[in-house]
Amino acid sequence: MAYVHDGRGIDPIFKNEDEVREFCKKLPTYFMQGQSQAEVCSSLNISQQTFMNYRKMYPILEDAYQLAITHAEAYWTRRGKDGTFGDGEVNAPLYKFQMTNRFGWGEKVQTEVTGKDGSALSVTLTKADVSAFDKEFDNDY
Fold it and tell me: Where are the domains of the chain?
């Protein structure tokens, strides 16, 4: 039997691997309406720390969680798409905040490095530079 400390004491959540597999089948459905990890843990009456500990203990649970988060992101993506095309309302600043903070979305940033006057950047190495590089990385390049 697996035990994890969740702040309230030592609680057995899964009695065996079969219970873990059954939970993994259900987990993605908990996120299909865009719920956060905190919301799901609250509805299951477990702490987020316990949930994270179990994800580390059981790779199958981590896989199920990744699928669940994909469902949550898809839900919010559809909400934004529907709002964009007039099939629903969307508060653009709050939507952007939600997607950036929950799913790592952000503005596309590109950086270009050029030499003097916009010309190609050139790098010149001396033998000492190459020797120092070889010493630093032990010829492993």
Answer: 3-103
Bridging pattern class, strands 10-12 and 3-5: antiparallel
| pLDDT tens-digit map of 78-128 | 988 888 887 778 888 888 888 888 888 877 777 888 887 888 887 788 888
Rounded to the nearest 5°, which phi and psi values hold at 123?
-125, 130
75 and 83 in contact (C-beta within 8 Å)? no
| C-alpha span between 114 and 110 (Å, rounded) | 13
Integer Cα distance of 71 and 47 in angstroms: 21
Three-class secondary structure of residue 10 per DSSP: strand
Query: Taking the model in full, what pTM does it have?
Result: 0.63
